[in-house]
Amino acid sequence: MKVLQLSARLPYPLTDGGAMGIYHLARSVAFEGHDVTFLSFPSPDPKETKEAIAAMSQFCRVQLVSKALPGRVPTLIRTTFRGAYPIERRMMPEMYRAIEELLTKEKFDVVHLDHSHVGKYGLWIKQKFGIPVVLRQHNFETLLYDRFAEQAPNVLTRTVARVHAKRLRIEETTILRGVDAVAAITEEDVVLMRQVAPNAKYSVVPAGVDTDFFQPTSQDQEVENKILWVGGLDWEPNLDGVTWFLKEIFPRIHRSIPEVRMDIVGSGGDRVEQVVTQYQGRIRILGRVPDIREHLAVASVMVVPLRIGGGMRLKLLDFFASGKAVVSTRIGAEGNAATDSAEVLLRDEPEAFARAVVDLLRNREQRAALGKLARRLVEARYSWNRVGEMLVAVYQKAIEEHHKN
What is the Cα Rg of the chain in Å? Predict the structure, then answer.
């Protein structure tokens, strides 16, 4: 099977859940024996672009359009009166030209769209070239904008988010109705999408984790009273979650355990520097790191304090595969089969979240028990090999249905 995969980003380095979800799924499909061509935009950083091509060329062919995506501010200005920001930012004539050149020269069996961000390209491909199109819906983007509008810190931001959420709902509905199949990550997202596109063909293909790369380590490596956050703060839901944690939850933990320490790993850490300075070195902003496993090994408790989200958080699977104890909000653990007090502790209110973290920091045996059950869960349900098989089955069904019609 020849697969053309369209993505709005190069999924490398593997420092966030979005990158890992795109990268590992393409890799899994290729390892199933299929020919994958990956078409995307270059990264703003030439070095990252070069590294991405080198990494991905080991299992697929990588092609890039001639220009990187425009910045956020110019796109927001351009979409003041029309257009949904997350989609319009990815609509570029250079991508249309690259697709047309590729499909004119070669025959592909199916087109894979990574997210509704590139959905308009897929509808155009289906109409112009008659190729079946499968949408890998990483989350229902409209839900993220709705939730962001609820949590936004000021009236202007809330207003802009609501406007784009309304426009995005229209755009996403059109895309969902137009593609041949939708591979959603969670049942929850399917329920939401059915409300706007009830006749679309949905399958649930969850996110996965590399259970060979992420392995449990000895508890003896843990640094006492060490909390860890992992995730880029360039993404607004992550920034909102970490800011909320630092302002509302960490002070409560600190009052109970004055010697508590926290590391923040991921890009964009400068956005919380002002909040962090008041803790006089108890919180470190580490930025991107070469290997997250070193930081997972020494952490006692992982925190996922997200209040905005959709789809499924891949980093949670990484933590589970590493056998770590995790405290998360319910939104942070959305779409995951983990259950409260078995594989994870789920807490939504600041006081309850803080108390759960404190209890885990003080209870080595409870941390070990959570981590053991979490590892067992990902081994049974979330290996990338299994997820790749599920996606290939969606491709094959879409191709069969397309030829019937």
Answer: 21
